[in-house]
Design a protein that fits this description.
Strand order of the largest sheet: 2-37-42-39-40
Shape: elongated
Distance between the termini: 32 Å
Number of domains: 2
Number of strands: 44
Structural class: mainly beta
CATH topology of the largest domain: Methylamine Dehydrogenase, Chain H
Helix content: under 10%
Radius of gyration: 27 Å
CATH class of the largest domain: Mainly Beta
CATH architecture of the largest domain: 7 Propeller
């Protein structure tokens, strides 16, 4: 005798979840309930610009060419056993050889300036022992006057002007400037002792500058002055909370001041960078562009990563269409990546923003104190120096995913999604993935979590997972080299 089966089985609906938009920037700002189900919420030390998870940026020891265009590079012998605190690129025309020349210069932990020629066979670095040691970090700037190129170094006791023949002229009467700029045949400067005023002089000779009272008072709601830029032959003043333009009347020679932008988010002066036909800078709540008249915030959806963060040590440069800013970010986790293992780190991230595509790459675990674009002749690279560990050497940006020989741990995470059916239980049965390198795949739900070690292979792998929950999140972690294609989740939605 046969009996009718009266037990009701639950209906299931098969579904696949494919993370096919890995090249779309992360989103830490919006609530998960309004994000697409395949949105990325965490991604660092991976490069996703090609739509897959690939090896991110890293840094290796700087090597310089023996001459412009050479395929042979030389190692640098740093003869001073001390920290590197600030980098400069001194560009000058050599009247003897009739060629443009380049020196890498820096301020070191002994208080001295040091240098090395960028294009030469000499691998040694040289310290300017003929100059007195600086008690504090000087402010440096390239400057040209009457066909002579100078590297200016301003400090509390005056200013030194170094010309191409490395002759140093000392001017004891020059007050320490924070920033300086030449426009309208005038020298404009922000002085350290009075950041509410713009000082100016028609005397362009750096060897005879005097402490001057010729100034424009800019006290106001936009705050102290922090940076000056000659942009399209106009003078723009970046202030703690705004941007001001200074124009000159051609007839009377008088200056006019117009305020262009005001914000409640502090602008960090060392990040204000001319990037071709725009200026980019970091403020308290994110990155902005300025074209000479209007200011626009980049919609990167990472504003929360800047919250409750002090970025007074942030620095930036522009290279090959990308804006690089070394800063401090909040990653909202307890992980310790790279420099974060040192309690006293200042910065912990490097952001690379492609100004044409707005694609953002985040490198985590680097404590950069100075960053510089070397973009001359056959050389186009970004170099950096560091706080704490690695503070006694130069580094060149590369695509190794390592800091020197140490791999940086990488992480990618999707948003937590309920697949638009929050009341229904889901069963993730299988993950289809292709990864050329070892990685760890983790499936998280509100009920359980499982991790799987993936062995690198050129073949597609199908991983049985069987994880239940109402909300699903996928995470991939790796270390060093990576080439991982978007994973696909095969699951059932249980009615």
């Amino acid at each position: 005798m046969f009996y009718e089966n009266t037990i009701k089985t639950k209906k299931t609906t098969k579904k696949t979840l494919t993370y096919n938009k890995l090249n779309i920037n992360i989103n830490t700002d919006d609530d998960a309930s309004i994000m697409p189900e395949n949105q990325t919420t965490v991604c660092y030390n991976f490069n996703c610009t090609n739509g897959i998870l690939e090896t991110g940026y890293g840094f290796s020891s700087l090597k310089l060419p023996v001459y412009d265009g050479a395929v042979i590079n030389r190692n640098i012998r740093i003869n001073q056993d001390c920290d590197i605190k600030k980098l400069w690129h001194f560009k000058f025309f050599d009247p003897y050889t009739k060629t443009r020349q380049h020196k890498l210069m820096w301020f070191n932990g002994n208080g001295y300036l040091a240098t090395i020629n960028i294009f030469t066979y000499d691998s040694n670095t040289y310290e300017f022992n003929s100059l007195p040691a600086f008690a504090d970090e000087p402010v440096g700037a390239n400057y040209r006057y009457e066909d002579t190129d100078f590297m200016l170094f301003s400090y509390d006791a005056g200013m030194y002007s170094l010309s191409q023949n490395v002759f140093a002229h000392y001017n004891p009467n020059c007050a320490k400037f924070v920033k300086m700029c030449v426009v309208y045949n005038n020298l404009f400067a922000i002085l350290e002792g009075d950041r509410n005023s713009l000082f100016y002089s028609s005397n362009l000779n750096p060897t005879t500058w005097q402490a001057t009272e010729t100034k424009i008072d800019l006290t106001g709601d936009r705050g102290s002055l922090c940076s000056l830029i000659n942009f399209n032959d106009y003078l723009y003043i970046f202030r703690d909370f705004g941007i001001t333009k200074v124009s000159k009347y051609s007839v009377s020679g008088d200056f006019s001041v117009s305020d262009l932008f005001q914000t409640s988010s502090k602008i960090f002066g060392e990040t204000v960078t001319k990037c071709g036909d725009t200026i980019v800078f970091l403020s308290k709540n994110g990155l902005y562009s300025f074209n000479g008249s209007t200011t626009k915030k980049y919609n990167l959806n990472i504003s929360k990563m800047f919250e409750v963060i002090d970025n007074n040590k942030a620095v930036a440069c522009f290279n090959n269409g990308k804006y690089f800013v070394a800063c401090r970010l909040n990653f909202f986790d307890t992980n310790k990546i790279g420099c974060e293992n040192v309690v006293s780190y200042k910065n912990n991230a490097l952001l690379s923003l492609d100004l044409e595509t707005n694609e953002l790459v985040i490198t985590r675990g680097v404590d950069i104190n100075s960053i510089l674009s070397l973009n001359e002749g056959s050389l186009s690279t970004v170099i950096a120096s560091f706080y704490n560990e690695h503070s006694k050497t130069f580094a060149k940006l590369d695509n190794s995913g390592k800091i020197f020989d140490t791999p940086l741990n990488s992480q990618w995470s999707s948003t937590l999604t309920n697949l638009d059916c929050p009341e229904k239980l889901k069963l993730v049965k299988q993950v289809i993935i292709k990864s050329y390198n070892d990685c760890v795949l983790t499936i998280k739900t509100d009920l359980e979590e499982k991790s799987f070690n993936i062995v690198g292979s050129s073949k597609i792998q199908k991983i049985k997972v069987f994880v239940k929950g109402y909300e699903i999140q996928t995470q991939i972690t790796s270390s060093g080299t990576a080439k991982i294609f978007p994973p696909k989740l095969v699951l059932e939605v249980i009615d």
